[in-house]
Every structure is written in structure tokens, then in C-alpha cells.
Amino acid sequence: MRPYQRQIAERIAEIVDPGDLDLSSLFSVPPDSTLGDLAFPCFQLARTLKEAPPRIAERIAEAAWEFPWLAEVVAAGPYVNFLYDSGAFSRDVLARVIAAGEAFGTSDVGEGKTVVVEFSSPNIAKHLAVHHLRSTMLGQVMVNLLRASGYSVVALNHLGDWGTNFGKLLAAWERYGEEEGLEDSLIETSDDPVALFNKLYVRINSEIETDPQLEETARAWFRKLEAGDPVARERWQRIRDVSWARFEKVYKRLGVSFDEVIGESFYEDKMPEIIDELAKTGLLVESEGAEVVALEEEIPPLLIRKRDGSTLYGTRDLASAEYRWGRWQFSRALYVVDAGQGLHFRQVFGVLRRLGRSYADRLEHTEFGIMRMNVDGQWIKGRTRKGQIVLLEDVLDDATALAREVVLRKNPDLGDSIEEIAEAVGVGAVVFSDMKARRGRDVNFDLEKFLSFEGETGPYLQYTHVRFCGILRKSEIDSSDHGDGSLLVEAEEKALLLCLDRFDTVIARAALEAEPSILSQYLLDLAGEFNAYYAKHRIISDDGDLTRHRLSLIDALRVVLSRGLRILCLEPLERM
Ligand code: ARG
Question: What is the model's pTM?
């Protein structure tokens, strides 16, 4: 049996012709449960059908509805309200959840379509910093949401491993390498070789200020690197390997992984092709010695080649879009990159459009707001008071340490498992803070708040999951003896069942809108509804029959919360 919502959507599509409109994602919950269990707003259809919403609502309500589980279909202004037959509804929903298990919520809306999700994409020779958290987690969660909606997904890291900066780094290696211990095995023995590269970079930059001549040396090194000079290549490769190894440690803690890691360097020999095309079509024009492509009035031209002939970040983005399209023929390609790069992507997409690329409209800049840190009572962007970058691994360590205290205060008897639990709660709290707000909003990083068990937090959701597990354990009733749910008639029970029924459309909508907060808010709703229920009703009581039916609801809630948490990269703990 498929979700009621989908069946209703399909029936509506028979009554009126929705064109390309996906009706299943349009439903809402009636403001008052006596009106119905599900509402269908006709506004979007009105646009497609060029007909007044109340008129469409009436047409839908008056048509024949023959589902045995449907008690009533009523038009109310621009809405159609659907009321379910309670007994049948609870039985069907629970049976569906239990049968699907952890696959519950999976749909096939994306079948046959490929989505490329580019995310994280840090620059090598630096650490992952707190500002990388958002791209990394929003991207991974988008990958999970799209997979759950049936898309085939390419999780892609567009590693920043190319550009004139690496000329500077190589020049610095030559100049101070020995002194800084790079020539001996320090890279292998140092517990933080990335910090060594960082230091080199900072050092050469400050020396360039007093000695501009050095800039030329740096440029010469980058040319060597481009030309494939063995020393330049070998050192660059070293920097890349060491940086990647460091990134991977953090990715692992966060539950992040990639199908493809394709650095900007990969496009080095793929740029000439598109530059030639730009030249041939006359789009490439000279501007102050450099070569640019002009765009619409309000958007500045995209710089393609500098005066010295070197290519740029944007040039590589053109080549990479071509490559992605050629390789994957995606139906969408997401760039999960902060809103600060909005203009850059408008320029890149604009150039591709001017080239007449049909896929240009499938490119999406999945932008997001910044993560602010609190320094002496002020919220600022990812730096300490001394201007130092806040490392992501340090943030995760702090979160884990604090989580350890918070959890032990609540439950001192966790034994050895406390270490694992503290990591899952600490990291989960940080990750959830990122998923909770709509992605366009800025987030203030407030560890104490993120770790509170009472607020709308990761630990609160994990704790709710622990509670479900606790109830099921305590009952000592095997799941094969759980009831079918037909005795669940309380209003709070109905609210929870409706919540379960919505799960797959929530996932599909979050995937479509590239908005993980839709899922986070849904899980918070589910936990909230459960807590209201739990405060009012006993799950395990003297009434054996009712107990068995309620346990089956708890089991279904556990399945959905667990799946939802995993999609959000949080671990559904059984104890904490
Ligand atoms: N490496 C870049 C940075 O750290 C982000 C790359 C974003 N992706 C892209 N296709 N331009 O700012």
C-alpha cells in the first residue's frame, strides 16, 4: 500500500490535468484537525489551469472518490480537505512503516535522473575551518536526501588544488624549506604538516610585501608547475596528499564521503577548448590587456585569462561544468557554496548561457549564509579575536568534550561507551545546528545552546530516539506481538500517524528545494508531538491489547526518527 498522499495526488491528476506540476509535494496540514487530515491547496493548479482556486477545489471534491480508507472529501474555499477513516488509516500507515523498515520514506521521484552535488571543495595546504562546515554538511545531507528520493547522485569534491597561490607556496618551499625542515622527513613525522605549509604561505606573503620581486619568482614557479616540471609537480603532489589525508580525518568524523574528488588542477588541459570556442564565437573580448566575456548590464564581465596568459578560478569553473555535463548528463547540478560567491556563479552560468549551453539552466548555486563565532560577546565570521581561523577539528573536539560532561551529568552509568556517545552527541549537535535553520540564514555558533537537551537540538532528537528504544526494551514484548494499530484513536495518536504518513513527501520536498531544514523541522515536530502524547498517555499499561498497539506506534516512530537522523548525518543512539 502506497502513502495515502500519493494516491490522492494521483487521483487529483486524473480529475484535473496538472501538466508538469508534481502534486504530491503541495499538500498541507489543515489548521484544525476537525476539518480533515490532509489539505490540498489549489493555488498552483489555478495558475496552470487558469481557473479560480475555489472552482478547482469544488471540481475535485465533487468527483468520485472510491478509496475505502477515505471518509470525506470537502471543498473549503481554495482548499480540498480529506478526512481519513481512523482505523484503516492507522493500520495502513503502521504496516507500511514496519514492512519498509529503515527504507521507509524512500521514493522513486528521482528515478532515472542524475544529480551532481558539488560540496565542501576546500583549498589544499590549509585546514578545514569552521566555515567549511556548512558546505560540507549541507552537501552531504543533500546527497542523502536525493538518494532517498531515488535519484542517482554524484557526490563531488571540487578540490582547490590549482592557481597562482601554489606558485607562491612552491617559491616559499624553495626559499625557506630547509630552514623549516621540509627537506628532511618532517612532513611525515610532524603531527600537523598542513600547519607547516600554512606557515610557509604566510611567511612568503609578508615577504612579498617588502620585496615585490618575489612575486615574479612565485609566478615562475607556477609556470613550472603548469609545464610539468618534476620538482614542482612532486612537491605540489606532496602538499595535495598531505592535505587530503588531513581532510579525510575530519570527513570521517562527520560521516561525509565523496564519489569523486576532482581538483581544479584536472581542468588545466581542458580549458583551452572552451576558451577557443569563446574566441571563435566572438564572445571573448580584450579588456585592459586581459580577456573577458561580457555579460548582462548589471553583471560585470567574467575574467577568462589574465594579462600574463594565466587562467583563473572562473575559467576552471567553465571547463568543469562542461566536463560534468559531458560525463553525467545531469538533470540538476548543485554547487553548495556560500552566498558570498553568488556573483561568481551568476557570471559562470551567464557565460555558459551565452554559449547556448542547454544545460546552463540546470545549474544551481545552492547558497547558504555564514557561520558566526562568538568572540568576547560579538558575533563574527569564523575567526578568533586575534584573527586566527577556527579549525573545524577543534570545534568538533570542544563539542565532544562538552557533550561528555552534559551526558555524564544526566547518566553517569554509561561505562566505556561514553566516549563513543560523547562523539556522536557532540558532533551531532554541531551538525544539527547547521541543518536546522533555513540554509540562506546565518548561523550563530553557540555550543552550549546546541548541546541543550531541552531546545530544538540534535541531542534532543537523539534523546527522543533513546526514549523510544527504552520504551521498547522495557516492555519486553517482542515486535512480532505488537498490535496493528487499529486501537489508536486518541487525537495525539492520529497526529503522530499523520506525521509518519508525510515522511516521504518531506524528504522529496527537501531534496527538490535543496532545503535540509525541511527535514530537521519535521523531525522536531515529530519529537514534539510525541512528547505531548507521552505526557498525556501511558504506553505500557495494564491494558495488554492497547499496550501492544501503542508499542507498534513507538516502533514506527523509532524507525522514522532513526532514518531521518541518519539522513541528517546524526547517529540514532540507543543509549545516552
Ligand atoms: N575552493 C573554493 C573555495 O574555497 C570553493 C569552490 C567552490 N566550487 C566551485 N565550483 N567554484 O572558496
Answer: 0.93
